[in-house]
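Hi everyone, sorry if this is the wrong subforum. Our group has a chain we'd like a structural model of before ordering constructs, and none of us has done structure prediction before. Sequence below.
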Amino acid sequence: MIRIFFLVRSLGAGGAERQLVELVRALDKSRFAVTLATFYSGGALRRELDGLPGVTVLSLHKRGRWEVFPFIWRLWRAARRVKPHIIYSSMGISNELSLLVGRAVGAKVAWSLRTSNVDFSRYSRLSLWSFRAAARLSRFPDLIVANSYAGKEYYLAHGYSGKRMIVIPNGVDTHTFRPDPEAGMRVRREWGVAAEELLVGLVGRLDPAKGHPIFLRAAALLMKQGCRVRFVCVGDGPQKYSAELSALASKLGLESNLIWAGARSDMPAVYNALDIACSSSDREGMPNAIAEAMSCGVPCVVTDVGDSARLVARPELVVPPGEPDALAAALGRLLTLPPGERSAIGEQARDRVVHKYRVDRMARSTENALLGLLR
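Answer:
Right subforum, don't worry. Here is the predicted structure as tokens:
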């Protein structure tokens, strides 16, 4: 058995965390004994791993950002008990810590990189320092896994070593995320959306990187053009930013046509409630929400960031980031198609995910990469 020790900040709802959970669930437990350690306790995704055979989940009980040395001591003790062959970390400071602890316990070290085109002016100075430090340290891990080709290019352009860097795209559980009109109708009834109404949705946390203001302005343009359509934003975020977005929606006159759905745990049903899914992000690696929506047979319009265009593979549904006019035009073209043509685009989207982005493909590629470290 190969002992693998995953390290992640938390198991809160997020794209990177979702992919880690999917990977842990899909790994071959006859070959890998898995320990997953989190900085912080709890998290919305934690319960999905409880009781999973071959998987141990433990919290290092970090007490806050500035608890450093006692936390590192607990991390080292946990890794020493497990005696892992491989430490696989997921983003940010967990990558640097995995290098420190991995070398101390004699394990191979794999890093995960999950995004591209980060605007550090939106985040703390510590985030920028950590990014620069990781670039200098990137020649030391035994493997670096980027989840997108755009992400790999971005990190290489910013000083990361490419010697051991590979790309393994995100994976989707296509059995869970599948067309289910009945589940979609239940959600539409909950939201007060009639079966004949068109519904466009943006799924993502309320974060500046997700481009909600661009989505709202595109929605307002479509309303001015006379489109009979409703909109929904699914996800939550900081109260201050949420209030800013709500104020912008009111200013744009969207109150009666916009639903703020908050965070949801029934995402397959949510995607099935949509006629069109949208990503207005100004940075991404590979957007989970779009891949999941496609897997549910929902046509998608995306901004040309990260590997979004590669994922959708339909140039007419890809627009430049930060341009609400272009986003509204692409959405408008889909909205005015006959329902049968729009459904056909959704069916083709699902076929693409099933053939290229299934979670088992991601897991087998990861297994092969990790086994290569031990040969």
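For your construct planning: The radius of gyration is 21 Å. The chain has a mean pLDDT of 94.
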